[in-house]
Specification:
- The structure is a single chain.
- It is elongated, with a radius of gyration of 29 Å.
- The chain has helices spanning 66-71, 77-86, 130-139, 154-181; strands at residues 14-16, 24-25, 28-29, 37-48, 52-63, 90-105, 108-124, 144-151, 187-196, 202-204, 209-210, 216-217, 223-235.
- It has a five-stranded antiparallel beta sheet. A four-stranded antiparallel beta sheet has the order 1-4-13-9. A two-stranded antiparallel ribbon has the order 2-3.
- It has 236 residues and is α+β, with helices and mostly antiparallel strands.
- Strand 11 (209-210) and strand 12 form a beta hairpin.
- It has two domains: 14-49 and 155-198 and 224-235, no CATH class; 52-151, Alpha-Beta Plaits (2-Layer Sandwich).
- It is built from four helices and 13 strands.
- InterPro entries: 26kDa_periplasmic_antigen, SIMPL/DUF541.
- This is DUF541 domain-containing protein.
Length: 236
């Protein structure tokens, strides 16, 4: 008995008959058993426009002492929070920290004072207002924009993932049919299916521009949702 490996470029596939490969006798090849299978991997990607935007801004203060740094904060967190909420956003977190600030020189590292940072994060389902939120926060005293990220709501993400999984399964069957046809076989039912989770899709704003009125304008890109499947089919 000998094993006959099957290789198809670009497709990860394995044909198994009786668990060891195709079987041949001295008088000629015997028909493969009914439990022959082919295993393939396939991927798919779906794009969706983001329906969630998260803006992170901060007010910063510096001073010779921790108290002075706090007193020198460029803006009040309550004022920044109110400004964001007035624009329809939901503030999801507010963090405050004070830490020593150092300066590097040839003589070494020397503490020059303290820096206080009050960070506020807000989320909105109206992604077109991300720039407006930034402007409102800056007007209220924020002097640092730490980032804007776009994502999908759970409902949108799940819908996109289901579409990606359906496409991945179609791709898997197509690949399996190519492999099976090379051996004059056809593809039957799926025996086992495994899926892979690629994590929560997020896209970050890479650039911000100002319009003619000096207001912040951001154009987000699409969010991609990936799906991978590993499928084993019966061969007929």
């Amino acid at each position: 008995m000998v094993s006959r490996p099957l290789a198809i470029a670009g497709v990860l596939a394995l044909l198994v008959a009786g668990g060891v490969g195709f079987a041949f006798a001295d008088t000629g090849a015997t028909a493969p058993s009914s439990n022959s299978t082919v295993s393939v991997n396939a991927d798919a990607t779906v794009e969706r426009a983001p329906d969630r935007a998260t803006v992170t801004v901060a007010a910063v203060g510096r001073g010779e002492t921790a108290e002075a740094a706090r007193n020198n904060l460029s803006g009040d967190a309550d004022a920044i929070t109110s400004a964001l909420e007035d624009e329809g956003a939901t503030v999801t977190s507010s963090r405050f920290q004070i830490r020593p600030e150092y300066e590097e020189s040839r003589e070494g590292r020397e503490q020059v004072g303290y820096v206080a940072i009050h960070t506020v994060e807000a989320e909105t389902s109206n992604v077109s207002t991300a720039g407006t939120l930034i402007d409102a926060a800056v007007d209220a005293g924020a002097d640092r924009v730490e980032g804007v990220r776009y994502s999908l709501s759970e409902e949108t993400r799940q819908d996109a993932r289901e579409e990606a999984l359906t496409t991945a399964m179609d791709n898997a069957r197509t690949d399996a049919e190519v492999v099976a046809a090379a051996e004059d076989r056809s593809v039957g039912d799926a025996v086992t299916v495994q899926t892979s989770n690629h994590g929560r899709p997020v896209v970050y704003a890479e650039a911000m521009a100002s319009d003619a009125g000096g207001r912040t304008n951001i154009q987000p890109g699409d969010v991609t949702v990936d799906a991978s499947v590993s499928v084993t089919y019966e061969l007929e």
